Amino acid sequence: MNWQTIPPLIQKDLTIFFRNRFYTLITIMALVAYIGVYYAMPDRVDEIIEVGLYAPSTSAEAAKMLEEDGISFQLFESEAALQQAIVDEEIGSGIAFPENLFQDVAAGRKPTVHIYVPSDVDNDIKDAMKVIVEAMTLTLTGRSLNIEANEVILGRDMAGEQVLPRNRMLPLLAVIVLMFETMGLASLLAEEIQSGTIRALLVSPMGIRELFAAKGVVSVSMVFFQVVVLMLVVGALEFEPLIIITVLFLSALLVTGIGFLMGAAGRDMLSVMAWGILAMLLLGVPSFGVIFPGTMTAWAKFIPSYYLVDTLHQVINFGAGWPQISNNLLLLLGWDVALLFVGVAVLKRKFA
Questions:
Q1: Residues paired with 73 in a beta bridge
Q2: 346 lies in a domain?
């Protein structure tokens, strides 16, 4: 390999890339925007359920007892005021006990308790409200159930250690940064193929290995630098920095292989962006499993970005170390080798 031909080619690619004002401006503005989005999101998790309450005077004592279990009650003077507060979206849900609650219970009658929720509330909230009513009824009437409750947590108990919304969003931001920068470099590659620039370069003493080495260095360095800046500014490198840097570098190799494929498939900037957006949507799928827990399915593990997303999530949000994420890194490395090999092979056929 003629190493002397690689630095001039790297310099040429960087000069051409930054000469494109669109990608230069978008690169800077997008990175600033991602950081702004991160810091604009909530930096704390509120685990308290706020419930409106209209009930007999003794409800204040019952409400105080239940507030220790993660429920906060806002008392209303009338049932109509409670309903209006929910309609005005001042509070998410409410409970109204009848005035004659104790008389009905003493007489053996079954009192009616009204649960008020918005029309768009999900079934989980409705079920939770029913449980709250049962607990309130037991407290207000003074009757207890003749059972012993034993709470068993299946899976990870997240009580008291909920993940911050901004940290749930971070893996998705990393994927977007990686893929967006790759689109710019893939666009440059596609234009060089269509214009015949690459064929002209291969006529020179530079060989095909030097060409791909230079392109790979430019792509990996540009992508890796920006995503590291993102993680540094948001403070993610405080958690196992060596692991974070390693997974980001492997991810930069991953998107470089994808960039080679996009460069071979596209003919100009617009076509590359079309392929890039499709790839970004696909690679972003595992991130939504972090943002919306419980939505992840097993097939998401067949998407290469899953191992980036899962590693960042486990390290930043749960303090995972090398033993917990070593398999992710190995599988990500395997995807790197496969996609780089396929990308190089497809490009060689493009201008062979």
A1: 51
A2: yes
Question: Looking at residue 77, which CATH number applies to its domain?
Answer: 3.40.1710.10
Residue 10 φ then ψ, to 5°: -60, -45
Are 244 and 303 in a shared domain? yes
- Listed in sequence order, the residues at least 6 apart from 248 whose beta carbon sits closer than 8 Å to its beta carbon are 174, 224, 227, 228, 231, 308
Q: Please state whether beta strands 49-54 and 71-75 pair in parallel, antiparallel, or not at all (unpaired).
A: parallel
Are 223 and 12 a contacting pair, CB within 8 Å? no
Considering the domain architecture, whether residues 126 and 259 belong to the same structural domain is answered as no
Asked if 200 and 333 sit in the same domain, the reply is yes
Model confidence pLDDT, tens digit, residues 31-73: 888 889 888 877 765 556 678 888 766 555 555 556 655 677 7
CA dihedral 148, 149, 154, 156 (to 10 degrees): -120
Query: In total, how many domains does the chain have?
Result: 2
In 3-state terms the chain splits into helix, strand, coil percentages (rounded to 5) of 70, 5, 25
Nearest-angstrom CA–CA distance, 158 and 156:
6
C-alpha–C-alpha distance, residues 265 and 263, integer Å: 6
Cβ atoms within 10 Å, residue 323: 7
Indicate the pTM of the whole model: 0.69
